[in-house]
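In response to reviewer comment 3 from the previous cycle, which asked for concrete evidence that the modeling workflow produces usable outputs, we include below a single protein chain processed end to end. The sequence was submitted unchanged, and the resulting structure tokens are shown without manual editing.
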Amino acid sequence: MSDRTRLRADFIRRSGWGNARETPLAGDASFRRYFRLHGCRGTAVVMDAPPPNEDVRPFVRIGRHLLALGLSPPEILAEDPAHGFLLLEDLGDDTFACVLERGGDEAELYSVATDVLATLHAAPDRGLLPDLGAYAGEALIEAAMLLPEWYLPAATGHEASAEETEAYRAAWQRCLGYLPATADALLLRDYHKDNLVWLPGRPGVRACGLLDFQDAQRGHPSYDLVSLIEDARRDVSPAVHDACFARYVGAAGLDATDFQTGFALMAAQRHARVIGLFVRLWKRDGKPTYLPHLPRVWRLFERALRHEALEPLRHWVDRLLPPPIRGIGAA
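The workflow returned the following structure tokens.
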């Protein structure tokens, strides 16, 4: 038995689940691992997040904030931040991805998830936002650098030159200058079908369970809506896409034109990052399984680039990554 296993067993015992049976759950792209406990009181989930690679405290803080707003993150039943363990309410296995695969009502699921964002952004942040990092400005540009750093060499056979890289940065700086002023919102950052759980027994926005929000930051309120309705790994129907956009704008009382500009900018940034990320996963990490999604992400990226605020970036992309070399992974 490893030291980590012994520490986890001790945490489980101290949490009152010492006699429970433990089964592993699917992990994520981090060092975190998850285990389901089956005991006389039902089930619970252990998050095993080993320090110093992981820190459970942001998850605890954001989770309690979401609970206070009447949303449905997993309740925290026990915690040991020093050793990186949390005992969490078990929200079950009905992620949106699973429910949709079984023929679930796409419009219903996405509408509730959109309402969660409207509720989250309308609520007072209780001093939370100032302490979070800002996903804005140079942080957005730095994340989007994955496109020239990884996709361009894979598509063209040559590295991006210093001049090309600087022109890309300059294009982004010009584009973000068109971003309408708006109040920052809490961004959960990975708000998509795999991190949302369908809880139909709960009313209203509580029917949408929330997972994987420990990397939350503050930024433009459209970012999580982009993540939801312009999913890199699933085609969302145009009718649902447009309905959710209008639903959020109406609920938030926003100017639709200004919000559309912000949405296009956040969409272009996210899609540029994901295109580069999927190629990095292939080239650096030996994980080609994401390549079949690239044509979809390119379609979404191209749609965002049609917005007038993205004209500087569109010129760079058309010059260095013309349509014939946007098809990696299409075969």
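The longest helix spans residues 256-283. We consider this sufficient to address the reviewer's concern, and the full set will be provided in the supplementary archive.
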